Structures are given as C-alpha cells and as structure tokens.
Amino acid sequence: MSGSNGSENSGASADATVRKYPRITPYLTVDGADAAIAYYRDVFGAEEHMRLVGPGGLVLHVELRIADGAIMLADENPEWGTQGPKALGGTAVTLAISVDDVDETVARAVEKGATVAMPVSDQFYGDRVGIVEDPFGHLWHIATPVEQLSDEEMRRRFDDLFTE
C-alpha cells in the first residue's frame, strides 16, 4: 500500500498509470451516480476521467476533475455499507469550490435541482458566497473572491461582526 504520506506504492507495476491528486480528495457516496456525474458536469464543468461499474450496473468508482481539483464518487452500496447523505439524514461536510462567477454558478445549480442553503452574499473574508444542497444531499460552499485581504484586515472584520 503506501507510506504514511501516501507517496509510495510498492505493489504498482512499472507501467502502471500514475494518478496525481491533491493530498485530500473528497470521495462522495450518492444515490444515483450517473445523475450525479451529469449534475456535476453541468454545474461545475466536471470531466470524467475513469469509471468502474460493478455487477448490476452500480458505479463503484468514478473520478471527476473540476478545474484543478478532483472528486471521486460511487453509488450507495448496501453490500459495502455505504450510504449517501439523504439515506443518512444529512451531511456534516460542506465542499468548498471557487468559481469565476458565484451568482451564475448558484443559479445554474438551482436550475439543475439544488436548493439554496445560504443565498449569495458578500462575506467579511472577501469572498462572495452562496451555499447549496445538491440533489444528492451534499452541501457546496460556492465562492468567488472579490477582495484580497490581509490576515489582519480579515481578523478586524471578523471581530467587527461581534461588536456591531
């Protein structure tokens, strides 16, 4: 398998394809992987790079690239004990994505079936942000940077939130 930092793979053959990911890559479980793949393509411009389909047509693994990041996802699978957020009654995780136009992206997400959890608005930390729940139960913090702030200015604005 791999060393503590995930950088070694002693079982790989010399001609194996090397896939590079950020140190952390979200792995989503959904009820309806095919629909989720289409949704992430239509809303975020995701490009599919690899898909593994098991018996019965379940998508057991798919790799999607979004801008310079990646997500992986799979169908819910009772044999493996995996469930998506809707089956679990919600999620404790919010996926953050930076886009060129948050207003347009949130509108497209809603048009494709998302619900707004937080309307788009300017935030103290210099981003314009909206949060949506996608049709599969995953939360997305969608942001466009609008100001470049120093840590000091961000802290001042944060403190001001609690003194006004």
UniProtKB/TrEMBL annotation:
The lineage's top-level taxon is: Bacteria
Q: Which PROSITE patterns match?
A: VOC
InterPro entries, alphabetically? Glyas_Bleomycin-R_OHBP_Dase (IPR029068), Glyas_Fos-R_dOase_dom (IPR004360), VOC_core (IPR037523)
Identify the residues that the record assigns to the VOC domain, covering every copy: 20-145
Q: Give the protein's recorded name.
A: Glyoxalase
Q: Which gene encodes it?
A: phnB
